[in-house]
Every structure is written in structure tokens, then in C-alpha cells.
Amino acid sequence: MPTKEQIWEAIEALAQSLGVAAEYVWEVVMRQQFWVNGWLLIVIGAVLLPFGIWGVQLLWATMGEERSGYKWRSGKVDMSGKQGSYAMLGSFIGFSCLGASLILFIVGVCHIINPGYYALKSIMAMF
Fold first, then answer.
1. How does pLDDT run across 99-121, given as a tens digit for each residue?
2. Which among 43, 82, 125, 126 has most CB atoms closer than 10 A?
3. HEC readout, 83-114
4. Can you give the pLDDT at residue 85?
5. Rounded Cα–Cα distance for residues 45 and 14 (Å)
6. CA 108, CA 105: separation in Å to the nearest integer?
7. Closest by CA position to 53, among listed 87, 99, 85
8. What global pTM score does this model have?
9. Degrees to nearest 5, angle at CA 79 with 77 and 82
10. Buried (b) or exposed (e) across 22-49, using 16+ Cβ within 10 A?
11. For the chain, first and last CA: distance in Å?
């Protein structure tokens, strides 16, 4: 783990080697953190969210609970055969997608709120 002095020396060396282009590179990296990393993570999370919701609904169906407004009734899924195995596997995949989408939303929002931190982190990862 580099010390604070080593980080500042690395940043100063990078700025001196880039010269006038240092400000442009910083702006580009900031935009990349905001638009590419931040919004891309949120979009991927939004794509995974319906699969997570599907997993919750599938688990409700397999547990035999009757929910008002839904199309299933209790006892439709026989948990003893292949259908039960597929339902549990689908529920697991759905819950995994739900967890992944929530994590991606949180990380994406962090990139949008504070792109400077992640820009500096990505620059320092090169050293």
C-alpha cells in the first residue's frame, strides 16, 4: 500500500509528464467515471432487476402461498419432482440477480455522486 507521499509524488510525476494535457486527461477520466461506469452499472442493475422480481414471485409460487392479484394458486408446483428442482434453481438465480442489481445500483450511484474519487482511484491503479 503506497503512502500519502508516494501517491503525491506519483500524481506530480504524471502531471509533469502529461504537461498541458493533464487537465484534459482529468476531465476525460471524470466523464468516464460518471457516464460510463456510473450509468452503465445502473443500467445493468435495471436489466437484472426484473429477473430478481421473477425469482421472488417464483419462490412465492413454490412455497405454496396464495397472493391476491397474482395468477398462481397454492399447490401448483409439485416440489417432489423435476419441476420443484427447476423452481428452486430459478428462485436462486432470481435472488442472485436481485442482489446483484441492488449492488450495481449502489455502486453506480456512488460513481455518479463522487466521480473524482473513482477517477483518482483508477489513475492510482496504474502505479
1. 999 999 999 999 999 998 888 88
2. 43
3. HHHHHHHHHHHHHHHHHHHHHHHHHHHHHHHC
4. 79
5. 34
6. 5
7. 99
8. 0.70
9. 95
10. eeeebeebeebbbeebbeebbeebeebb
11. 11
Which of the two residues, 83 and 38, has the higher pLDDT score?
Answer: 38
Tally the domains of the chain. 1
Q: Which domain, by its residues, includes 107? A: 4-124
Q: Is residue 3 classed as helix, strand or coil in its secondary structure? A: coil
C-alpha cell at 23: 487537465
Question: Would you call 72 exposed, middle or buried from its count of C-beta atoms within 10 A (0-12, 13-18, 19+)?
Answer: middle
Specify the higher pLDDT residue, 17 or 107: 107
